[in-house]
Amino acid sequence: MNKKPKRWQAFLPDPLVAIQVNSASFTDEGVDTVLDNVQKLAGVNTLYLVAMSWARGTGGRQQPNLPLPDHGVQEYDLDWQGGLDVRRNDLHYRDDTVAPPNRSAEYGDDWDLFEQVVPKARDRSMSLIAWIAESVRADRIFQTPGFWRTLEVDAWGRPTRVPCYRNPSYVNWYAQVIEDWAHNAPVDGIVFAPERPGPLNILMESPSDPNDLDVHGPFGGAISCFCPHCCNAAERKGINIISAQRGYRELIEWNIEVSRGRIPLDGAFVTFWRLLLENPEILAWQRLWSDGQEQFMKSIYGVAKAVRPDIQVGWHLYHNYSLSPFCRASSDYGRWAEFSDFLKLTVYNATGGPRLNSWVKRSCQALFADTSPEKIYPVLMDMMGFDEGPLEGLISEGLSSGYVEREIHRAVKGVAGACAIDAGVDVDIPNNFGVEKEKRSTRDQVREAVKAAFRGGARGVVLSRKYSEMTLDNLAGAGDALGELGLKDES
Ligand SMILES: [Zn+2]
Question: Which positions ≥6 away from 434 have C-beta within 8 Å?
């Protein structure tokens, strides 16, 4: 493996073998124990330090009610809420419209993840990437004083419970953290995890939940955004705002009807397409939303680079960019490479099976409501370049390692060398679908996924989602793969 040229100069190894790990593991098990385990078992040379998360997927211990792994404190942290796990350097927090992100309360006032872990990781020649989970669904962020100023606005003009990527207060909220870390954090890179599909994508691929209809509208109000910042952007592009609002209101009604099995006279798909013909602004608004997200990402990238040109900035791209044709169309890896040093692709294959199964079924309660999951699934496989077994088997079998290789290969071709591609490999990620006998990770699955990622041309792998939910034996599958590939650093 390559060695770092200088202690604090940003440097990511190639091949990169990273693991996502949070404060709970370090405080529960001790920094040295965690580093020993990930280095010896999985050949890890880079840590994704979860420095800011309100999302259980990356923060805290194992998700309550799921089996605890074979390490760490054998108890659930039921009160975990999350926040910033490093000290704020207040000089950098100058926006007075929204209070800065809260310090997490779980690990004591003095806890600073960077301070505790980075020196010991450097002694082992590890590289470090600071992780931010956007966590837009977490209750805790809405307790931030002034956070209401950041909110998206729905098609009826009501603030929602989702922040807007174009809102300057929201951009500033993160830009301040990025500025702080670029100045002060002893890390080589920053990775940000936005996990949002945009309004049209939601309505095409998901049924609305009747429980959401009371306070914030369907999908928690995420069919948006019609805030003044987004409307100004629409005006500059010549998009008719009134027509877009009307179109989305009608599309929400369409979704509610087909979600409940009440198929319109001309069919779900034909009626959907008619709504697009009558309100082409629907499509324009999805693009407007995606443009807002991309501008937000560019802002983060630019702020980090302005302060520290050598810091590496990348993105965690969530599973929908791989599993959904609509989200896939919204994410042009080649274009994203213009504001990315690396992309971490979610190509989780064990949990990918139940997830794809669920996606197909949900889409058949929305855009594909005229047909059945069993009939649309083969068509989707052809459209998406998947080569997997039967739909029901996905739950117990997961996706193949071939899926990992093909998706990585597609991304590597897409960015054409303009940025690095790292593969997110799943180790013991639960599915939460209440499905009995669903595919769980095994040591072999992890080993084959890591090998497939490198066969596909990945620069590296990121063992996901968090060390605190992984079993040590399955983690060792990564070490097995590196050994077979001749990449394990035995020094
Ligand atoms: Zn907006």
Answer: none
Residue 6 domain flag: no
CATH number for position 179: 3.20.20.80
Gap between the Cα atoms of 12 and 45, Å rounded: 9
Measured in Å, residue 53 CA sits from the centre of ligand 1 at 23
Assigned token pair, 189? 């890179």
Q: Angle at Cα 159 formed by Cα 158 and Cα 161, nearest 5°?
A: 130
What is the Å distance from ligand 1's center to 219 Cα?
16
CA of 222 to the centre of ligand 1 (A): 11
**Predicted pLDDT of residue 250:** 96
Over range 209-231, report the average pLDDT.
Answer: 77
Question: Tell me, what's the pLDDT at 112?
Answer: 98
In a domain, 473, yes or no: yes
Helix (H, G, I), strand (E, B) or coil at 484: helix
Ligand 1 centroid to Cα of residue 224, in Å, is 7
pLDDT band, very low/low/confident/very high, at 217 (cuts 50, 70, 90): low
Number of domains in the chain: 1
226 CA to middle of ligand 1, Å?
Answer: 6
Range of the domain at 449: 16-485
Assigned domain for 7 exists = no
Confirm if 5 and 11 have CB atoms less than 8 A apart. Answer: yes
The closest of 399, 354, 313 to 129, measured between CA atoms, is 313
pLDDT at 7 over 60: no
Residue 490 lies in a domain: no
**C-alpha pair distances (Å), 204 with each of 12, 321, 328, 346:** 39, 14, 13, 21
> What value does the mean pLDDT take over residues 465-481?
98
**Cα of 289 from ligand 1 centre, angstroms:** 8
- % residues pLDDT > 70 (the chain): 94
Q: How far is the CA of 311 from the centre of ligand 1 (A)?
A: 29
* Distance between Cα 180 and ligand 1 center (Å): 25
Determine the distance separating the centroid of ligand 1 and the alpha carbon of 153, expressed in angstroms: 6
Please name which of 325, 318, 392, 326 lies closest in space to residue 348, comparing C-alpha atoms.
Answer: 318
User: pLDDT for 50-72, tens place per residue?
Assistant: 999 999 999 999 999 889 999 99
In 424-439, which positions are buried (b, 16+ CB within 10 angstroms) versus exposed (e)?
A: bbbbbbbbbeeeeebb
pLDDT of 39 above 60:
yes
Q: 245 CA distance to ligand 1 centroid (A)?
A: 13
CA–centroid distance, 93 to ligand 1, in Å, is 23
Separation of alpha carbons 78 and 76, rounded Å? 5
With CA atoms as reference, report the closest residue to 122 among 30, 187, 203: 187
The alpha carbon of 348 and the centre of ligand 1 are apart by a number of angstroms equal to 31
Q: How far apart are CA 483 and CA 388, in angstroms?
A: 28
Mean pLDDT of 75-79: 97
